[in-house]
Amino acid sequence: MTETDNDSCTIALMPAGRRGQVARGTNLLEAARQLGVELESICAGRQTCGKCQVSVESGSFPKHALTSSPDHLSAPDGREAKYFEKHALAPGRRLACACEVQGDLLLVVPEESQARKQIVAKAATDRAIDVAPAVRQVYVEVVPATLESHGGDWERLQAALAEQWGLHDLILDPQALLILQPALAAGGHALTVTLWQDREVLRVQPGYVEGAFGLAVDVGSTTIVAHLCDLRTGAVRATASSMNPQVRFGEDLMSRVSYVMMHPDGTEKMHRAVIETLQSLAEQAAASAGIAREDIADVVLVGNTVMHHLLLGLSPVELGGAPFALAVSEPLDLKARDLGLKLNPAARLHVLPCIAGHVGADNVAVQLAEAPHASDELMLIVDVGTNAEIVLGDRGGVLCCSSPTGPAFEGAQITHGQRAAPGAIERVRIDPDTLEPRWKVIGHPDWIGPGGAAEQATGICGSGIIEAVAELFLAGAITADGLFSEAAAARSPRIRYTGRTGAYVLTEAEDSATGQPITVTQSDIRAIQLGKAALYAGVKLLMQERGVTAVDRIVLAGAFGSYIDPRHAMVLGLIPDCALERVVAVGNAAGDGARIALLNREARREAARLARENRHVQTAVNPSFQAEFVGAIAIPHATDAFPHLTGILPVPTPVPTERRSARRRARG
Questions:
Q1: Is the model's pLDDT at 32 over the cut of 80?
Q2: Beta-bridge partner residues of 359
Q3: Are 22 and 101 in contact (CB under 8 A)?
Q4: What are 580-614's pLDDT values in tens digits?
Q5: Nearest to residue 106, comparing CAs of 63, 67, 74?
Q6: What is the dihedral of CA 92, 96, 100, 102, to 10 degrees?
């Protein structure tokens, strides 16, 4: 052995890399904690849960200056041996709570035994979540009542939690109190207790039980996504999603605000609709994971400000006009039952904070996930939806704003638009010489051309319309002002006019599932131009406030952002000039942020700090917004340069002033 003296031993724990001295005879679970390595131990060292498993490496390890051997742990006692009889452990495993250190050790802590697990939330950014949730389970053994004892079972449970886990000043949810005595009787006075923030008892279950789960939910204007997570391991056990039922009351945020203004029961109707959908998603996810809905003990919700208010049952009317006042912006800790959700009767519910009138909890979640405040590069984050939320920042500070892009990017208000579902055209390529198209539909792996797949396409979704318009521009079929080119119409029968209004036939009737041609019309192009101009104008305002003319990195967030091709986004002028390899799509970052907050209680405090420290830029009343908006209507932009698109953009063909004026008169 290589002990520094007869009373101390050297321990190295992998993969944490922690190394240090502990006293000979120290319980191994406690020794690991002394060295800063937390092991799973729901049963508080009673050899019941089997979570604190470790493996001892044998041999000499010069790097750590020690020689390790399984003999340097105390032999298994009767209780550990009894556990081994009932449960099959991997060869060489020991329960740390049942061992005493007798010599130097190099220990490997398997992933399932690590209390603070690192799970990758999204491979694109190799981001990890430190699993330390607000809700956890502990196992306790409660002293039975006697004729001589005084006080109730709750008091005895409090004493057991204080003695065995060092937990004091706890409160008990009334729903848990109702089942406390039956649980004690059924478990022989042994209980598994579910705790929130180590301050409140949410649930008591007889004996030793595993299974506390949480729900991370992104309530989007169009889609609601719920991730069911194991609160011990951090694993996503199931994901369920649905269209937001509020769409029937209005496609975009302002139409829903208008609905409330015109209908006294509008808030209640939309609140009830979204809660019913959340309940359905929770039950779907629970069924998929094979658990009971009562096992869901924690929920984190994020959404834009209108969604935030409606899911809380608050009127969004004040958000419909200046000064766009929020009813509440701080984070909220509620009971799930307060909103009408039927999960665990005592389940907690956390709502992330909002920043400003139209920069909501979903944006805070995106920042939590993408961490612009910790970046050395100047990062632009664009979360594209019916209301684009934009972030610009680095370690020097973070700015944010919102911009009303409208529903066109999600396929709404487009002639043949639809949401991203099987059958929707999601990718488009147009031959610049022949103007003949190819397309991809969701649910079909291959590119399709005319006559190639009858009854495949049902419509076109947001990413498809973006690519279609960008490809039409690259092929010279439309000009920088978004109008169909007369020269292109002369060389392709796919450009057809109804009066003076042009349209491009993407699929003929025989190539669509509807039996009707799928077209990109002049009004569709205009809707995309207006939406992208609003987004780009918001970006420019943030850049002006920061005093910069370029950004280092662009992050496209949101479900829609996942499908946008960076090249087409820049060709269209949806985002400012940037090296294309520095433009990344990160998927539903708001959902990831909600998951981070669900799995890490410190992240909730970090989210509150981010919301306080963001500098909000108001676009609605900014005098520069209109000028930037007008310039951004052109493709890609009337005045801004895009050097990273050199060789990609077509050479502009000047339009004579008199013809341009005639076109404007024709459009009215």
A1: yes
A2: 356
A3: yes
A4: 999 988 888 999 999 999 999 999 999 999 999 99
A5: 67
A6: 50
Helices (H), 246-292: 253-262, 266-289
Distance CA 51, CA 414 (A): 55
pLDDT at 255 (0 to 100): 85
Q: Which domains does the chain have, with CATH numbers?
A: 8-113 (3.10.20.30), 135-206 (3.10.20.880), 215-351 (3.30.420.480), 360-668 (no CATH)
Radius of gyration of the chain (CA): 30
Distance CA 260, CA 277 (A): 20
Q: Which two tokens stand for residue 523?
A: 């009004």
Judged by DSSP in three states, 16 sits in coil
* Size (the chain), residues: 668
pLDDT at 500: 83
The closest of 259, 248, 246, 249 to 219, measured between CA atoms, is 246
d(CA 124, CA 553): 14
Closest CA to 314 of 331, 339, 336: 339
DSSP structure string for 136-162: EEEEEEPPPP-SS--S-HHHHHHHHHH
Cα–Cα distance between 393 and 616 in angstroms, integer? 12
Rounded-to-integer distance, Cα 425 and Cα 609, Å: 41
Q: For residue 302, what are its two tokens?
A: 């994020």
| C-alpha–C-alpha distance, residues 2 and 6, integer Å | 10
* 113 conformational bin, left if phi > 0, alpha if psi -120 to 50, beta if neither: alpha
pLDDT classification of 124: cutoffs 50, 70, 90: very low
Q: Which pLDDT band holds residue 656 (cuts at 50, 70, 90)?
A: very low
Give pLDDT, residue 119. 41
Strand order from edge to edge, sheet including 135-141: 135-141, 190-196, 200-206, 171-172
How many Å apart are CA 2 and CA 663, to the nearest integer?
A: 89
CB-based contact 252:386 (threshold 8 Å)? yes
First to last CA, the chain: 92
| Cβ proximity of 554 and 584 under 8 Å | yes
Contact by Cβ (8 Å): 294, 345:
yes
Pull the structure tokens for residue 447.
């590119």
> Which positions ≥6 away from 211 have C-beta within 8 Å?
137, 291, 295
Who wins on pLDDT, 412 or 598? 598
Nearest to 22 by CA among 99, 110, 113: 99
Do 273 and 336 form a contact (C-beta atoms < 8 A)? no
Share of the chain above pLDDT 70, in %: 92
Query: C-alpha distances in angstroms, 209 versus 49, 112, 167?
Result: 9, 17, 20
135-141 and 190-196 as β-strands: parallel, antiparallel, unpaired? antiparallel
Widest CA span of the chain, in angstroms? 103
Query: Which residues on adjacent β-strands are paired with residue 436?
Result: none
Which range, 114-128, 246-260, 268-282, 581-595, has the best average confidence (pLDDT)?
268-282
Helix (H) or strand (E) holding 546: helix 522-546
CB 18 within 8 A of CB 35: yes
pLDDT tens digit sequence for 149-187:
778 999 999 999 999 999 999 999 999 999 999 999 999
What residues have CB less than 8 Å from 511, skipping those under 6 apart? Answer: 448, 450, 451, 452, 453, 454, 456, 457
Strand partners for 402: 389
